[in-house]
Amino acid sequence: MSVHKEIKKVTTNVLQEMKKRGEKIAMLTAYDFTMARIIDSAGIDVILIGDSASNVMAGHETTLPITLDQMIYHASSVVRAVNRALVVVDLPFGSYQGNSKEALKSAIRIMKESGAHAVKLEGGREVKESIERILTAGIPVMGHLGLTPQSIYKFGTYNVRAKEDDEADRLINDAKLLETYGCFAIVLEKIPAALATKVSQSISIPVIGIGAGGGTDGQVLVTHDMLGMNLEFSPRFLRRYLNLYESMGNAFKQYISDVKSKDFPNDKEQY
Ligand code: KIV
Question: What is the span of the domain harbouring residue 252?
Answer without folding.
Answer: 243-271
